[in-house]
Amino acid sequence: MRIALERPDQPEVMALIDELDAYQKPLYPAESHHGVDMAALLQPDMAFAVARDGEGRALGCGAVWCTPAFGELKRMFVRPQCRGLGVARALLGLLEAQARARGCAAMALETGIHQHEAIALYQRAGYRFCPPFGAYLADPYSVFMQKPL
Q1: pLDDT of 69 over the 90 cut
Q2: Domain N-acetyltransferase: where (predicted)?
Q3: 19: buried, middle or exposed (CB in 10 Å: 19+, 13-18, 0-12)?
C-alpha cells in the first residue's frame, strides 16, 4: 500500500468520492450532510491523500482542512472490501502529520451517528467526543470529535 498527497480531481479518485456520497446519502437527511465539494478539496488549505494498492488502484482517501485553529478531517473513506487492512489508520496518520506540519495544534472531525466503524477508529486513534466546533450546529445525526496534536 502507498499513501500520498494527490489531486482529488482524478477520475478514479472522483469515483471514490462518489462511492462515499452514495454510501452516506441514504443514512442521513440532506441537511446533515457536511461533505465538501471538489472546489473546496482543491484549495491550498486542504491536503488530500489517497491510499493505493501495489497495482495503483485507489483503496481510500481523506483530507484535512487546515485552519489557524485546527485541522478538520474531511472526506475519509475506505472501500468496504478494503476495510480492516489498516488503510484508514494509515490515511489518518498521514493527514495528522500534514496538519501538524502546517501548524495545526489539534484535529477535529464531524461524522455521522450511523458510522460506528469510523467512530471506533477515531476513538482508538485518541479522538474524544466534543461539542460542535467551527460553523457546525448541534445535529442529532452528527458526532463531533477532537484530538490534540
Answers
A1: no
A2: 4-149
A3: middle
Q: Give the full edge-to-edge strand order of the sheet including 106-112.
A: 2-5, 46-52, 58-66, 71-78, 106-112, 142-148, 128-129
Q: Kindly compute the dihedral angle of the four CA atoms of residues 142, 98, 93, 5, in this order, to the nearest 10 degrees.
A: 100
Cell of 20: 462515499
Nearest-10 crossing angle of helices 87-101, 116-124: 60
Dist CA 59 CA 77 (whole Å): 9
pLDDT in tens, 80-101: 999 989 999 999 999 999 999 9
Per-residue model confidence as pLDDT tens digits over 11-66: 999 999 999 999 999 999 999 999 899 999 999 999 999 999 999 999 999 999 99
Check if the beta carbon of residue 21 is closer than 8 Å to that of residue 69. no
